[in-house]
Design goal:
This protein is mainly α. 51% of the residues lie in helices and 10% in strands. It has 4 helices and 3 strands, in the order H-E-E-E-H-H-H. It has a 3-stranded antiparallel sheet with strand order 1-2-3. The longest helix has 41 residues.
């Protein structure tokens, strides 16, 4: 390879290095954002109320109830069935609120416009595709559905010739 070939290769390598450095910086930024969101959501709680305001459920950010508050008047003003429905309603409202909090915390991360986009600094070099093709494993093949296992023949309950069965013991 002559001097101009080396210079072209060095320029392509430098361009690739800049691109990889940019990707790493973007990746580290996303990791920091995800860690911040995780810490925020770990401490977050959400509340949900029943429509009759007799039940309040507090849930964690995963929507799992961590506290249920029942108004003392609920035992005088409602039936056990309605109380159960009110608890379910409040728990579902808390879970929806938690889901909304997760969406709000993750929105900046998911809306990040800096997606990884790789351009080949070597152009459409067929040698590069051959080399990369030799490094990467082949794509997985679709898995064939297993053959259904036939059911064993059923023995009639009243057939004494087929040996002992539960009626014969």
């Amino acid at each position: 390879m002559d001097s101009s070939g080396y210079d072209q290769l060095r320029a392509r390598t430098d361009a690739l290095r800049v691109q990889v450095d940019s990707m790493l910086e973007s990746y580290e930024h996303q990791l920091r954002d995800i860690a911040t969101a995780r810490d925020t959501l770990a401490a977050a709680t959400a509340e949900g109320w029943s429509s009759d305001n007799l039940i309040r459920v507090t849930s964690n950010s995963a929507g799992i109830p961590i506290q249920v508050w029942v108004d003392p008047a609920a035992f005088k003003r409602t039936t056990p069935e309605k109380l159960g429905d009110a608890i379910t309603e409040a728990a579902q409202a808390a879970a929806r609120a938690a889901k909304s909090e997760i969406g709000a915390a993750m929105a900046p991360i998911l809306a990040d416009e800096k997606r990884f986009h790789i351009t080949n600094p070597l152009g459409d070099d067929p040698d590069l595709e051959r080399v990369v093709g030799g490094i990467l494993p082949p794509p997985p093949q679709p898995v064939a559905e297993p053959e259904p296992v036939p059911e064993p023949p059923r023995v009639a309950d009243d057939d004494e010739d087929n040996g002992p069965h539960w009626k014969g013991w």
